[in-house]
Structure formats: structure tokens, C-alpha cells
Amino acid sequence: MRRIDVPRALLLDRQPGDDLLLPDEQAHYLRDVLRLETGDEVELFDGEGTIVRGRLAAVGDEVRLKINKLRDSERGESPLTCVLFQAIPKGKRWKWILEKATELGVDSIVPLETKRTVVQIPKQRLKRRRKRWNKIVSSAARQSERTVVPTISDPLSIEEARKEPPRDIDLVAHPGGDAETPQQLLDAIDDPVDSVGIWIGPEGGFNEDEVQTMVDAGMSRISLGPRILRADTAGIAALALVQAARGDLGPGQAEISQSE
């Protein structure tokens, strides 16, 4: 079944039996890109938890869908809220991070500006970049059957990012020393952990002053194993380990599906 994301307003207060006129962008995608026909089944989601399924009632100058049912809005979403704070790496690796973090259930992504960050985005280009980033996570949410599209903030300094809504625990990935793994650290906590912040530095990592500042602020330093990981690998590895420890990737919880 094909899935597409649509504006939130289109699905507000919809019920089975309703007839939807799809906006031009989504109509073009279904008609001209996917080449679907009348009677084909489609799933629509608004990226904020509302999902409907139906069949195409008309495919022409107008594309209309007749709603058959509403879908469980919890499917595809982790019970653990994960926020990825990560410095933007060079090249195409940021796109890869956005895509894979979305597939792994991240709730939001905060680009970090650190002392060693190489990629600096001029303010006049930021709006265009964020539009592209949002398309990437929206596409990844669609293919991975998520019901919510992760949010992406403007790039923030470490100090600015620390002022974001608080989480139950923040984990700072930094090699060396005797830091515990995410699994070891989370296993030692008896209290419920509903939200986790994962902090990943740029190529070369955070500098020692930044790490010390974050630790002094109550964050926990973690190790991702005996090997030095590239920045793009580190964020995804940390997210997977945290989801396995307290999210929905633990034994008996993961559902493996074939992507389109």
C-alpha cells in the first residue's frame, strides 16, 4: 500500500465514508509519479499522528480518496522520546543521519554548532536548507510507516540547546576514559526513563571543555564501544542502543518490514 504525507488540516475531524480532494502536490505524486488508478488503496498521514486509509475514487484533473478507516496512531512510534543533538557533518552524511534517525524513531533533531563544527549555514540559506531537511525526514517517516514526522530545529550552540525542554537523561558520546555504554547506564537507573537526549559532536568530537561543561550540567558521558566511530555512525549507533535499552527495539518488540 502506498503512503503519502498530507497537510494536517486535510485530515482534521475526518471519518470513514468522507471524500477527500487531495492537494495539487499529493495529487501529482499519486497520479503522475506513482501512476495509481481509481480503486487503488492509499494511506494518508499528517505527520502528527492522524492516519486514514481509503481507495482512490477519482484519478484525473482532480484526485479524490474515499476514506475506509482510521488507523491506530500509535503504530510506528516508540514509547521513548529521543532527541538527537548532533553537529552537522560535511558532505551528504547529514542527509543520511536525518533519514536513519527517523527510521529509528527519533522524536526531534537539533543541529549543534560546536567549537569544532566545520559546516556553518548562513542565515540567508537556512530556510531553504530546513525545507530540504523536512522533506528528507518526511520521506523517511513515510517509508518506515511512522505516524509522526520528527521536528528539526535551527542550528543551536551547546548552551542554547541545553535550554530546550528538559529530558529525563542526557547522554554525551565521547571516546576514552571509563564511561559506560548506554545499556549499562540505563540499566542502572530504577526510575522510569521516558525521554533521552543524545549528544554527538562533529568530526573530531567535542573538545574537553565542552564535555566538562555538559557533565557539570548533569549530563552523563557514554562510550559507544572500543572503536572510534565517525560522527555520522556515532549518532545512529547511540540512538539504536538507547532504543534497544528503553525504547521499542528490545527483544520481542522490533518489527522488521520490507521498505518499498
Q: Note the overall shape.
A: elongated
Largest sheet: 7 strands, parallel
SSE sequence, one letter per element: EHEHEEEEHEHEEHEHEHEH
Total strands: the figure is: 12
CATH homologous superfamily classification of the largest domain: SPOUT methyltransferase, trefoil knot domain
CATH topology of the largest domain: Alpha/beta knot
Poorly predicted runs of 5 or more residues? 254-260
DSSP strand (E) fraction? 15-25%
Q: How many independent structural domains?
A: 2
Distance between the termini: 9 Å
Structural class: alpha/beta
The CATH class of the largest domain is: Alpha Beta
Rg: 20 Å
Mean pLDDT: 88
- The helix fraction, in percent, is 25-40%
Second rung of CATH, namely the architecture of the largest domain: 3-Layer(aba) Sandwich
The number of helical elements comes to 8
Please characterize this protein's 3D structure.
The chain is an alpha/beta fold and 260 residues long. It folds into 2 domains: 2-70, Ribosomal Protein L25, Chain P (Beta Barrel); 81-246, 3-Layer(aba) Sandwich (Alpha/beta knot). The chain has 8 helices and 12 strands. It has helices at residues 8-11, 24-33, 93-103, 123-143, 158-161, 182-187, 208-216, 231-246, and strands at 2-5, 19-21, 41-45, 51-59, 63-70, 81-87, 108-113, 151-152, 156-157, 169-173, 195-200, 220-222. The strands form 2 sheets. Strands 6, 7, 8, 9, 10, 11 and 12 form a 7-stranded parallel beta sheet that branches. The chain has a 5-stranded mixed beta sheet with strand order 1-3-4-5-2, with helices on both faces. Helix 3 crosses helix 4 and helix 3 runs parallel beside helix 8 (231-246). The termini are close together.
